[in-house]
Amino acid sequence: MRHIISLDEMTMDEWHSLYSVCEQIMAHPEDFSDRCRTKIMASLFYEPSTRTNLSHQAAMLRLGGSVIGFSDPQVSSVSKGETLKDTIIMASTYADVVVMRNPKEGAALAASLYSSVPIISAGDGGHLHPTQTLTDLTTITRYRGSIDGINIGFCGDLKNGRTVHSLISALVKFENVNFYLISPRELTIPDFERRLLKEHNCKFFEITGLDPIIPVLDVLYMTRIQRERFVDPLEYERLKGVYILDKGKMTRAKKDMIVLHPLPRVDEISGEIDDDPRAGYFEQARCGMFIRMALILHVLESGRIRPEKLAAKEQPQLCHNSRCITQTEKYLPPMTGINGDKTVCAYCDKEI
Ligand code: NCD
Asked: Is any ligand 1 atom within 6 A of the Cβ of residue 123?
């Protein structure tokens, strides 16, 4: 794994080795405090963030490295119309690793084409969020010892929640994971995830109610309804507040079920649950910093990369997803991939 764009390429051996480094860091953080001395991370956030931005920065600082970057594109040359390509060429000249969050789907793959250092995606629109997934896998493993054999419920906005998409894509690689996908009919998982679940012969159930299913779950992954991804604000108003996890629901859950949430929460987890020992979301955020330390160490091993020379001219694009990066960065080479029996855009995974 040179660039962290999705976790599709991550082997089980790589996961176990990352997790083992993470455990060593958690046990003896002082042994790692100098490991990135002289290294610089560029942190480019084109979208709001609290945990992902701060935890990557804290991870680099705890490894003894330094951080440059922006958390608001309006203060960078992006506001003057600079292309993603040019910003990435520059940032990767100054830094040894680039962490980027961008509202366009496929932006992380696009950035990797022009970067001379590893790109770590901190989320590309409603598409994927691989480092949140590493955080989630770490948290589940710490609570339960293993990921194999769990019944996991995903609840909320499964259409737009990039953390959901990335986590499902990673969990299909583990043994006997059963998926309970709880959402309003308007917010079910995208087709590329459904095809992936089928391809891996996973048991998955798409349902609208949380109540009937809560007693069978080992992990409940709550998510917020993603207001910023709605085209129609009235639809958001209609769907917000559809699931609220409260004490009443928790009485029907297993004694050792864990509640996860990538955060921020709006109202989908009632504050009265915070003191329940099964509330894992704050511990989850803490784990995120340590696994990102392990990840930064891992990607820095690859050193500098020579990006391929790509044509600079405008290209006829194949993808019609209005949220895809190829719609705005017209110079990107059109690229396709295969998902199940469909041809998809390699950037955003939407069917072509
Ligand atoms: C999530 C994100 O940005 O996708 N938060 C995070 O990174 N921890 C979830 C969300 O915004 O709902």
From this structure: yes
How far apart CA 217 and CA 316 sit, in angstroms, is: 47
Residue 73: the pLDDT is 87
- Per-residue pLDDT of 327-350, as tens digits, reads 999 999 999 999 888 999 999 999
What is the Å distance from ligand 1's center to 138 Cα?
A: 17
> Which numbered atom of ligand 1 lies nearest the CA of 226?
12
Ligand 1 atom closest to residue 285's alpha carbon, by position in its atom list:
8
Q: Assess whether the region 12-129+288-345 and the region 144-280 belong to the same CATH fold.
A: yes
pLDDT of 1 over the 90 cut: no
Domain boundaries, the chain: 12-129+288-345, 144-280
The answer to whether the predicted template modeling score (pTM) of the entire model surpasses 0.90 is yes
Q: Which H helix or E strand runs over 56?
A: helix 51-62
Are 260 and 279 a contacting pair, CB within 8 Å? no
User: Which tens digit of pLDDT belongs to each residue from 169-226?
Assistant: 999 999 999 999 999 999 999 999 999 999 999 999 999 999 999 999 999 999 999 9
- Please say if the pLDDT value at position 271 is more than 90: yes
Relative to beta strand 178-182, strand 119-124 is unpaired
Percent helix / strand / coil, the chain, rounded to 5: 40, 15, 45
Cα of 226 vs centre of ligand 1, distance in Å, is 9
Q: Superfamily assignment of 144-280 in CATH?
A: Aspartate/ornithine carbamoyltransferase (3.40.50.1370)
Ligand 1 probe mutation, 45, 225, 263, 268, most atoms within 8 A of CB:
263
* Class in CATH terms, 12-129+288-345: alpha beta
